[in-house]
Design goal:
Largest interface: A-B, 42 and 42 residues
Distance between the termini of chain B: 54 Å
Radius of gyration of chain B: 20 Å
Order of helices and strands of chain A: EEEEEEEEE
Order of helices and strands of chain B: EEEHEHEHEHHEEHEHHHHEEHEEHEHH
Oligomer: heterodimer
Distance between the termini of chain A: 38 Å
Strand content of chain A: 25-35%
Radius of gyration of chain A: 15 Å
Number of strands of chain A: 9
Shape of chain A: globular
Strand order of the largest sheet of chain B: 10-11-9-8-12-13-14
Structural class of chain A: mainly beta
CATH topology of chain A: Archaeosine Trna-guanine Transglycosylase, Chain: A, domain 4
CATH class of chain A: Mainly Beta
Shape of chain B: globular
Number of helices of chain A: 0
Strand content of chain B: 15-25%
Number of helices of chain B: 14
Largest sheet of chain A: 4 strands, antiparallel
Number of domains of chain B: 2
């Protein structure tokens, strides 16, 4: 699943189909973030701070889009997420294991 | 490669241990204190206090029995002392018989019959001391790594788990399987959203079907609870570490079992067959999962963590592996292997896998894990029914 990890990157993209990169150092607002997709070195400007281990959008993600990491679906965007924004529990939700959305559940 | 062996303890039934424990098992919570006291008095013994053994019925009672019996049968255990209260639902004689099929010595004492805690501790201490002497006479012999069985587990995960430590552990798991050894992965909860990837690697369509069934069974249970998994799993710590959904966590989890085909799906605490990769239907809960793997017969567990956890086990060494350098430096007490250089691009996946494989070999040779050095002997039994 993971390709070779390039020295010097700020964030890792696990698959060419991914919408997100994972920060491997703390990223500050306005910082230029270096990452690699299929051997091509790319960069983007972080629109907000992204802590180590958290995800940053490497493309504009429309509301409702199935968000990909490792080339697989990790959840759904609950709002439009512009490129360079922090991607986490405030703007994506899980699709699986959602007893709160099951028929008859007392979801508020 | 064919010369890869380790010095192990050959048991009467042919099993091999990498440790030589004298295990003290309470059949019920009421016998915990007597077991703990005996373990304090007699060196090189280990007790497994637990909360169960009474007010249980059906499959739930059976599961408790299976975990206690399996832990006694684990090849790292050379002898077993069972301490019963005398009125519990776990039958101490049936437990003794289940463990005796391995040919190892088993003794039973009954607190009500011998006349209370003090007399039970005295008798238990005498028995344990004598059994320990016998175990110390067993000589080690050279054993091929093809006979080694390991569990792969992750806990206290963060984003580094999926990026570094889990793929590295997968590479080490592949090395053991190439030697003819056995690997078991569990945590049914934590393949939700990634089960299609593992199902595609099952040896037969039946095994693949079974994998989907156990995930579905679990997900229906979550639906019945009417809750969102998020918050419980991924846990607050997982979320702080950057994991947003169970799907993301699962996709990061599965790489720890390497790339071999899945040869079978087995029940929690069921005896693990030999050779290749197996899936054990278990909760993601760290201690319950590791205890289930130990009851299934693994010799050791490789455990990746990003947030940091001290987890050990009563009868199997637990090797702690991390891809999070900051945590490694903060919690070196608890960590055995650091593969965080993968993230800076200065350690390859192959190098990280070889580093873990070397640790597995050394621990099989007798090197103590950090959890063993610190006396971490966690033990916990998964429940599937109510207390009466």
């Amino acid at each position: 699943m993971a390709g070779p990890i390039e020295a010097g990157a700020d964030a890792l993209v696990m698959d060419a189909a991914d919408h997100v990169a994972t920060a491997i150092r703390d990223i500050a607002t306005g910082q230029t973030v270096q990452y690699v997709v299929q051997g091509v070195r790319l960069s983007l400007v972080a629109e907000e701070a992204v802590p180590f281990g958290h995800k940053i959008a490497i493309t504009d993600i429309p509301e409702g889009e199935k968000v990909r990491k490792y080339g697989e679906v990790i959840g759904r965007a609950t709002t439009a997420i512009p490129k360079g924004r922090h991607v986490h529990v405030h703007n994506i939700e899980g699709i699986r294991g959602r007893g709160d959305k099951a028929k008859g559940a007392n979801a508020s | 490669m064919s010369a890869l062996t380790f010095p192990g303890y050959r048991r009467p039934n042919g099993d091999v241990g990498i440790r030589n424990h004298l295990l003290i098992i309470p059949t019920v919570i009421c016998a915990n204190q007597v077991c703990t006291r005996i373990a304090q008095i007699v060196p090189e013994t280990v007790a497994i206090p637990h909360q169960h053994g009474c007010s249980q019925i059906g499959a739930d009672k059976q599961r408790t029995f299976d975990v206690l019996a399996g832990t006694g049968k684990n090849p790292n255990v050379g002898g077993v002392l069972i301490v019963s209260l005398g009125c519990e639902v776990i039958d101490p004689q049936a437990l003794a018989e289940a463990i005796k099929v391995t040919g190892k010595p088993v003794e039973v004492i009954d607190i009500q019959e011998v006349g209370g805690s003090v007399k039970a501790i005295q008798l238990g201490t005498e028995l344990a001391r004598r059994m320990r002497e016998e175990l110390d006479r067993i000589e080690k012999t050279d054993i091929p790594f093809a006979e080694l069985k390991i569990g792969v587990k992750c806990g206290g995960s963060d984003a580094t788990s999926g990026l570094a430590s889990n793929p590295a552990l997968g590479a080490a798991a592949d090395s053991l399987i190439r030697e003819g050894g056995t690997v078991v992965i569990g945590e049914t909860t934590e393949i939700i959203g990634a089960e299609h990837v593992l199902a595609g690697r099952c040896r037969t369509p039946d095994i693949s079907q079974r994998l989907y069934e156990i995930v579905d069974r679990f997900e229906k249970e979550v639906e019945r609870m009417g809750a969102d998994m998020r918050g419980g799993n991924p846990s607050p710590g997982n979320i702080a570490g950057g994991l947003s959904t169970i799907e993301e966590k699962s996709l990061g989890c599965i790489s720890k079992c390497g790339t071999a085909p899945i040869e079978g799906v087995i029940e929690y605490a069921e005896a693990i067959p030999s050779g290749g990769l197996y899936f054990m239907d278990s909760p993601g809960n760290d201690i319950e999962c590791v205890s289930g793997m130990a009851a299934g017969g693994v010799h050791l567990v490789c455990f990746t963590t990003g947030r940091g956890t001290p987890t050990g086990s009563a009868v199997v060494p637990v090797i702690k592996i991390t891809g999070n350098k900051q945590m490694y430096e903060r919690m070196t007490d608890n960590m055995d292997v650091d593969v965080s250089d993968m993230l800076s691009g200065t350690m390859t996946l192959e190098e990280a896998g070889e580093r873990i494989w070397r640790e597995i070999r050394e621990v099989s040779h007798g090197k103590l894990t950090k959890a063993e050095i610190l006396g971490h002997q966690e033990f916990s039994i998964n429940r599937i029914g109510p207390s009466l």
